[in-house]
Amino acid sequence: MSKAVRSRSDKPRTDEAVRLEIYRMMVEARLFERRVHDLFLQGLVKGTSHLALGQEAIAAGYAAVLQPNDLVYCTYRGHVHTLLRGAPMAALMAELLGRANGICGGKGGSMHLTDVSKGAMGSYAIVGAHMPIAAGAAWAAKERETGQVVVCFFGDGTTNIGAFHEALNFAVVWELPVVFVCENNLYMEYTPIRSVTAVENPAADRASAYALEPILVDGNDPDEMHAVARRTVDLARSGDGPSLVEARTYRHGGHSRADPAKYRPEEEVAEWVARDPIPSLRERLIADGIDATTLDEIDRAAERVVDDATAEAQAGPPPDRSTLLTELWADGGSEWRN
Fold this sequence. Notes:
Blueprint: E1 5-6, H1 16-41, H2 56-63, E2 71-75, H3 79-84, H4 89-96, E3 120-124, H5 130-144, E4 150-155, H6 162-173, E5 178-184, E6 187-188, E7 191-192, E8 215-218, H7 222-237, E9 243-248, H8 266-273, H9 277-287, H10 292-314
Parallel strand pairs: 1-8, 2-3, 2-4, 4-5, 5-9, 8-9
Antiparallel strand pairs: 6-7
Helix pairs in contact: 1-2, 1-9, 1-10, 2-7, 4-10, 5-6
């Protein structure tokens, strides 16, 4: 039996402008990921890609409450988090295409998106590696009294990695301004998380071991997700220490573009697709008095943004060979090793 407490907001529903902004962010993220999928099938995306189709409400909920100087760390499934933190869409698209106008010069690719100027502190391909780094950034923010909050997104499989426990322990001991957000999409690559984990909710049910509130939220409910984001970020910013959030969600596709996801029961996929956060929020907004034409215009504007970003990305040249050994060491080159 789960001991996690499902989060329910006791505050009034988020105001209309913020909800519309969350809707816009989710739509842009969805269309971006779909375009990435299409370009991958055309052989234009270099390497693999891990899409967050269906999981957009989690990143959007936190993006709506963070301040410009806050920091975000994410996993290799980090396109959406980086985009919604404010990184230019065209530069992200170009990076996936391996172009010189990419956000990392075309050398990072899908799993290493970074824009420090926007507080997007990197996507990490090694499972759990970024959690202690996020804790370190939060420790620096506390020592320097910058008022920054750090949000660290990770998958359910990370909860069985040592770095998860180490980062949580130090975050609590040092009362760090960090929010750890587990995006539990039920599968750690191809393996159901429940089949290899002793507790039902891999993050929330372990929170009490670190004297933290067990927070379990519907990650496909944009309103609930935003309420939890607001509460946990406010706690961190006010000096009340870290939070651990488990957001239940589901990826619409496979683990990566090489994965057809045939291991998932068809009825399970259908059930979760029916809980898609974007049409769900759209229906709520209309029921709450928002004119459908307003939402239609947001949809059309998002399509234009993605089309423009794609054109700009594809216009970029491949990286020059002279950049091959730059940005690898602190001094920009490898000569010092010789």
